[in-house]
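Fold this: Terminase
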Amino acid sequence: MKGLSKKQYRLIHASLARIYEKVGSQDDALSEKIFSAMRLVDRRVTDIEEVQE
């Protein structure tokens, strides 16, 4: 089974960023979880870039 592509991870990150902006400071716990997910996606993209080099 093949994993997601770098482009797909970037789309996920962009979607999470939009949600993060909409949630804002209304719900700190949710904002932290969304931000954490964005960091995980960033790490995965970095891993993909390192493998491609």
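The radius of gyration is 13 Å. The chain has one domain: 6-52.
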